[in-house]
Amino acid sequence: MPKIGTSRRVLIDVAGETVTFICRHPSAQELSRFLNARFIHKRGKTETNLSGSRSIFMDQITTDLEGGTFEAADGTEQPIDASYQLTEADKTKWTGILGVKVSSFLDLIPMSWKSSAAQQFEDSANVPDEGPEKN
């Protein structure tokens, strides 16, 4: 039986390993904005904005991440999660690598991971809260 909780765990597969997004439940308005932002209609044409809308949506609702790591500025492997405090050196290093300002762990999460997680909200009535079942 489905259970309503304070958070939702969204599991994705990354190179044969599981990465888990810990997300708060989005409000109806947030989910509607996200779904509507995926496609932009201008002058009879439809433009796709899937990547941008998925990234923004996941940044808004992700509270933590489990199963991912990154290389810190000092060369050590560190978890990509809410508990790790990025140093100024980490921010500078990753801003240079990614080409966008890095200020939190959310900025280190690859777009492909965010996209995979966001897709589970696009048809969330048919997806269990623990993500897709693995065979």
If you had to describe this structure to a student in words, what would you say it looks like?
By secondary structure, this protein is of the alpha+beta class. It has one domain (7-126). It is built from 5 helices and 7 strands; from the N terminus they run E-E-H-E-E-H-E-E-E-H-H-H. The strands form 3 sheets. Strands 1-2-5 form a 3-stranded antiparallel β-sheet. The protein starts with 6 loop residues before the first strand and ends in a 13-residue tail after the last helix. The model is unreliable at 125-135 (pLDDT under 50).
Task: Give a summary of the structure in a few sentences.
The protein is α+β, with helices and mostly antiparallel strands. It has five helices and seven strands. It has one domain (7-126).
What's the end-to-end separation, in Å?
A: 21 Å
Number of helical elements: 5
Task: Return Rg in Å.
Answer: 16 Å
Helix fraction by DSSP (H/I, runs of at least 4) = 25-40%
Instruction: Give the helices and strands as they follow along the chain.
Output: EEHEEHEEEHHH
Q: Label the overall shape.
A: globular
Average pLDDT taken over every residue: 88
Main sheet specs: 3 strands, antiparallel
- The computed structural class is alpha+beta
Strand content: 25-35%
**What is the count of distinct domains?**
1
